[in-house]
Design goal:
By secondary structure, the chain is α+β, with helices and mostly antiparallel strands. It has six helices and ten strands, in the order βαββββββαβαααββα.
Length: about 200
């Protein structure tokens, strides 16, 4: 069952300025091949987009694709927003920009908190890769739902207790087709997804 498309945390969104142009350029350079590969897109039968990407910016903030932008083949600056603060325990994310942040923003935030070496996060969907790597790569528990404090904590545990910290790719067992990769930059994170076959 596809569990996708809506925000499960309290979102405090302030409509504001466009995100940093350099961050948007880096995101778009790697979002396009992910989209072309069908790893970011839309479930047409239910009209729900999937996949999101982000890069670290300043002061503990990060720029992330907006919610429900997966169906767009190319994004502009107005399709991204800046996550300015978050509180996992309170299940809350704050963002500022032209759109609301992705429903997976809390997981991205937690990953950036784990290491200063993590500067990019890619979340994609691939039924083929998901089935192939489920339980073989670091994998979250099947009872953990996307976009929740529990998912954020699951990735924290994977980072501390498995090879996820070094191989940078993990499977979301409770989020059909969901895979996350991290990297020192967007190139590294995206290629960790584009490379496995």
């Amino acid at each position: 069952m596809i569990d996708e498309g809506y925000i499960k945390f309290e979102l405090e969104w302030r409509q504001g300025k466009l995100p940093d142009a350099d961050a948007v350029a880096e995101l778009n350079e790697w979002r396009k091949p992910l989209y072309d590969a069908g790893l970011i897109g839309q479930y047409h039968d239910i009209g729900v987009g999937f996949g999101n990407i982000s890069v670290r910016s300043n002061n503990g903030q990060f720029v992330i694709s907006g919610t429900q932008t997966g169906h767009l083949d190319t994004l502009a600056a107005e399709h991204y927003t800046t996550v300015t603060a978050y509180d996992t325990a309170a299940n809350k994310v704050c963002c500022e920009g032209p759109v609301k942040a992705s429903s997976e923003s809390m997981t991205h935030a937690t990953l950036y908190e784990l290491s200063n070496e993590i500067n990019a996060v890619v979340h994609v969907h691939s039924a083929r890769l998901w089935r192939k790597f489920l339980g073989k790569l670091p994998t979250t528990d099947s009872t953990v739902s996307y976009g929740t404090p529990e998912m954020a904590e699951a990735f924290r545990r994977l980072y501390l207790d498995t090879v996820f910290a070094t191989n940078g790719i993990a499977v979301m067992a409770g989020h059909d087709d969901g895979i996350i990769a991290i990297g020192r930059n967007m190139r590294e994170a995206a290629q960790r997804i584009l490379g496995p076959s």
